Amino acid sequence: MIVLNSAIYFGTLLLFSSSFAFNIEVTHPSVKSGKVKSLFGFSVAGHRKQNDERGLIVGAPSDDKSGSIYWCPYQSNQCRNITFNIYKAASYSYTELGHELFGYSLSTLPLQQDRLAVACSPRLAYEVTGKLFVTGGCFAFSNTLSDPQFLGASTCLNIPDSSRSIDLRFCLDGASASYFHNTFTDIIISGSPYYQFARGIGLVSNMTEFKPVRRTDSSNLGDYSLLGSSSIISDHVYSSASDTNKPIVSVFGAPGVPQTKDEKGSGFVILNVIEKNTNQIIIPQAQLLQGSRFGSRFGHAVALIDLNGDGWDDLLVGAPFEQQMDPSALQKLDTEGRSTLSGSAAFGSVYIFWNQHRRLPSITAFSDSDIQILKPPPILSLKSGFGSVITTLGDIDHDGIDDFAIGAPYDEGGGSVIIYHGSKDKKIGAPTQHSSKLYCKGSIVVIRILAARNGIDKDIEAVV
Question: How far apart are CA 417 and CA 435, in angstroms?
């Protein structure tokens, strides 16, 4: 296990290289440290308070008994523990088992003031008639990081025959989470990858309506799909940034190896359209995108980023265990897509699905025929985990198109971050920067971008 006890973030520096590109200045990082073996830095999210104080929320899921989150202002070397009793905040029926992993996942909107912050605890356990249900759950904090509201995990309690099988009493809600806000609503989605024999499920909580928690349809999923291991939400999938009618879309990753006759065991991602003003509890699938290699963990990471500046979000999917092979090696696969070669190529891919500009949710937003696959740069070690994390950086080179980073946490020397620039012609070029050996082996890397646009500084924390 990699023991994290630091978070590192970097500023930007204009480097006049042959491409005249903006890159990340890595020689003078700011290091935020926590307790040893607390996993401080396991999750990180930027946050902006009402008084315009800006900083990082840092998760330490192994801190003390149940896990912790910390507030780390940019202008201070000190981090403050956001203390509260997660058991009482959830309900008095939740049992103090320890190792609840509070702070395992976080989600914020760092560019906006007066917005919520979400922190999750996937190992929260609920006792019913002497039986423990490891439901997990997420908490929504006010902008000042106070008044936590438990979002509830009743879906993980009402499972038929759960009293008979311990495998039906695990859910781990909060393994992933994503927060969305527009003028009309605040929505939080969370992933529960161990729901119902690890099929997985996505939960949708509307913070502006007094309605039950909604859930994605998991009826046709195979066991061990692990749906909800990653998640993201946006309203620019079936609409552009300039449209007025913007359907809200969730994306959940399922990087597992499902046990069904029809599944390839390659992982997949599912899109769901979250309807407005409806009593619908189960949210149907809008689209399913399948990975191509057995055991690739396709769906381990997902991101929605406008990579070509057209106003529509494109979909990025990480497959960190996918093996890269030359065309001749592709012919040497067994019937389940597993390589018959060993050590023949590097591992890891990131799939870019370009948005097809469909305004009707009944039509698929992405196509298997319009994709680009990013492979790990040769400088990375064989099993670097390229594609384990994908995050937007905003427009760091000021060309009007968002850029992004890909994490390779198992690269030799403590992990690596690879920076890519967006492209108007839908052709992402070679990486513009590769940062490795980042001072603290095993530390989480946080790239702080200060990209002025329209007179406003943009703070983006890229957690990789």
Answer: 5
